Amino acid sequence: MKHTFQCPKCESTDVIKIEGQRYNQNHIVSLTNWGTNHAVIDRFLCTHCGYTEEWLQLTSKFKKWVAKNKDKGNLASDFV
Fold first, then answer.
1. Would you say 15 and 1 are in contact if contact means Cβ atoms under 8 Å apart?
2. How far is residue 74 from each of residues 35, 36, 37, 55, 61, measured CA to CA in Å?
3. pTM of the model
4. Who contacts 19 (Cβ-Cβ below 8 Å, separation ≥6)?
5. How far apart are CA 45 and CA 39, in angstroms?
6. Which residue among 33, 39, 76, 80 is least packed, with the fewest CB closer than 10 Å?
7. In this predicted model, what pLDDT tens digit does every residue of 34-79 receive, in sequence order?
8. How far apart are CA 41 and CA 54, in angstroms?
9. How many CB atoms neighbour CB 31 within 10 A?
10. Per-residue DSSP letters for 2-58?
């Protein structure tokens, strides 16, 4: 959906992007227990059937966090 703007469920092209906002709690994922680092989520919504997908914005800050933590082998346990 992100790249084709076509729904994988119903194949409609009536897809809209709901861009994540850094200061909206519904649009972020905390990357640390203290909530000091966030990844912003963009949502893609099919207006025909209601199917949605969520994609993290791959910012340089997020990529640095991944590079720092991927060698620990437990990235998933760091998510809150």
1. yes
2. 18, 19, 17, 21, 19
3. 0.67
4. 42
5. 19
6. 76
7. 556 677 888 999 999 999 999 988 778 778 877 887 776 555 555 5
8. 6
9. 21
10. TTT---TTT----EEEE---TT-GGGEEESSTTS-SEEEEEEEEETTT--EEEEE--
